[in-house]
Specification:
Blueprint (H helix, E strand, L loop, with lengths): L30 H13 L4 H11 L1 H9 L9 H22 L1 H10 L18 H7 L1 H19 L8 H28 L5 H24 L3 H36 L6
Helix pairs in contact: 2-3, 3-9, 4-5, 4-8, 7-8, 7-10, 8-9, 9-10
Keywords: Membrane, Transmembrane, Transmembrane helix
InterPro entries: DUF3667 (IPR022134)
Protein name: DUF3667 domain-containing protein
């Protein structure tokens, strides 16, 4: 018998592959088997997702260092955890759009008026920028992840405990966790009738920065104030880069719209 994942030769009595660690599955896929796997991964009290979510609050260094050092059995790996968070992000937008449209309207008005440039009667990217942003939030998050990692990597250059790729792993876990936190906050606020996007964004920013600083404090075993200052600077750098890239995209699109006659200069 061979492992279905890495083709390693297995004994008939083996339950796990000694090469890649995959569980040996001999049963055909049935509704019962599918429900059992769903329960083991996400619904049971000892599932990996719940363990990872809780541990990223109580002992984030154990989760992140564990993954970096190859201990990847007790918690979800970073790619899976981040991918699930993007699904949650999409679910959040679905709920807000369909049940709390006032929130989406508030969000649209919060965007800078420079993104709402009038064309010659045709709809253009700027008029619909909030919709574009909402529909492709996962893409935006993923595109900017390398820049977030650069920020924290640069801030900790004098403490070279982690390389750039490892900072990317740290920030993927951190971003996923903040998405889960934001999901609960936005939905809870909307349920209580607080639907001001700008107000919620402001009140949630500081706790998320504090959480990020806490994670880096645990990872680098430093004082909290040192971790907070470093992470805050990294956050500011990220926002500056975010603004520059958005501005560059805006300029490119404006030039394209003008060149195609869809926008009057």
């Amino acid at each position: 018998m061979n492992c279905k994942n890495c083709n390693n030769t297995l004994k008939d009595t083996q339950k796990y592959c000694d090469e890649c660690g995959a569980k040996v599955i001999n049963n055909r896929l049935t509704p019962k088997v599918l429900i059992k796997q769903l329960n083991e991964q996400f619904l049971s009290i000892d599932n990996k997702f719940l363990k990872t979510f809780i541990s990223l609050f109580t002992k984030p260094d154990k989760v992140i260092d564990g993954f970096i050092n190859g201990q990847r059995k007790t918690h979800l790996n970073v790619v899976t955890y981040y991918a699930i968070s993007l699904t949650v992000l999409g679910f959040q937008m679905f709920i807000l759009k369909n049940f709390f449209p006032e929130f989406i309207e508030s969000q649209s008005s919060a965007f800078d008026e420079s993104f709402k440039m009038a064309g010659n009667g045709n709809k253009n990217l700027f008029e619909n920028f909030p919709d574009v942003f909402n529909n492709y939030q996962g893409v935006f998050f993923s595109l900017f992840m390398p820049f977030i990692a650069i920020g924290t990597w640069l801030i900790y250059l004098n403490k070279p405990k982690y390389n750039y790729t490892e900072h990317l792993v740290i920030n993927l876990y951190l971003t996923a966790q903040t998405i889960y936190i934001s999901f609960f906050v936005y939905i809870l606020m909307a349920l209580f009738g607080i639907k001001d996007y700008l107000f919620i964004s402001i009140i949630i920013t500081l706790p998320l920065i504090v959480y990020g600083a806490y994670v880096f404090k645990k990872l680098y075993s430093t004082k909290f104030i040192d971790a907070f200052i470093r992470y805050f600077i990294a956050y500011i750098l990220y926002m500056i880069v975010f603004g520059i890239i958005l501005f560059a995209i805006t300029v490119v699109v404006v030039i394209y719209l003008i060149s195609t006659g869809q926008l009057n200069p």
